[in-house]
Design goal:
heterodimer, A: alpha/beta, Glutaredoxin, two-stranded antiparallel ribbon, 5 helices, B: mainly alpha
Amino acid sequence: MMRYVLITAFVALVALLGVGLTLNPREVPSPLVGKPAPNFQLPQLHEPGKQFSQKDMLGKVWLLNVWASWCVTCREEHPVLVEFAKSGAAPLYGLNYKDERKDGIAWLKQFGDPYVLSAYDRDGRIGIDYGVYGVPETYVIDKKGVIRYKRIGALTPEILKNKVLPLVAELNKG
Amino acid sequence: MLSKAITFVLLMVLAVAAWGKEAAPVAEDPVLERRLQTLSAELRCLVCQNESLAGSRAELAVDLRNQIRERMRQGQSDEEIVDYLVSRYGDFVLYRPPLKLTTLLLWLGPLLLIVAGLAALFYRLSRRREAPAIELTGSERERARALLSDSGRERL
């Protein structure tokens, strides 16, 4: 009897640790999902005179993608974003994070600009408000301005198809 | 002669330049800086996850330290600052996660393992004690004595 209890306990422990091993420690669950998107008011990347705020997007389901010209993964992710923008599923806005303005603009010129516009976060302050710690990061924000999904790292075609697009469709219905 | 005098004067001038001053403090406000150090040692750098915010040179850690410094200057308490960071980055930024339902296993797990191990140990020991002693017959006793004394001699 005791033997079976011990074996069961051991198997349970191995299973628990095994699940732990498959988790990615880089993917910190964001406490911001389900919370209102933090307030910001930033100059636009291309037109420093104009401002952009998350409030401008109330009533729409939209995506906010944090990117920078110095970010290598952003380069990998970029074609996926360009495809997404073409599909017109939801408006895609950029947050240019800790970048030089001219570098950011040149980068978009070289690789194509999928964003309706990019906000310019020179000192990364808004990034901290949004809990950014690895670029690229992407947020899906609903009509009420609530963050519904956050992706840390590059968006892939699979994530877009299986997670983002269904979520956007559902949010647009509601 | 003149050149020697000039050298002497120059050396004197240099000597004056060499007089030291007390080193300027690294920070304007040492008390606040110490508070920042203590607090940020308790917080995890999100980029290099095994380093604390105090020890990390990652750019994000520098930014976060600046944020904390600024908030301290505004008179926020340590709790308020920690709450702000947790609301942005989750409990993961804390090296000492709070005790709540989702972290119960984390806090009590090691204790459970010790208790389970001790229980298993005592269970085994009590079973051993209960095992009946083996009775030997007269001839077996003889043989055992012979074997024991025999091996004793060999070892000598």
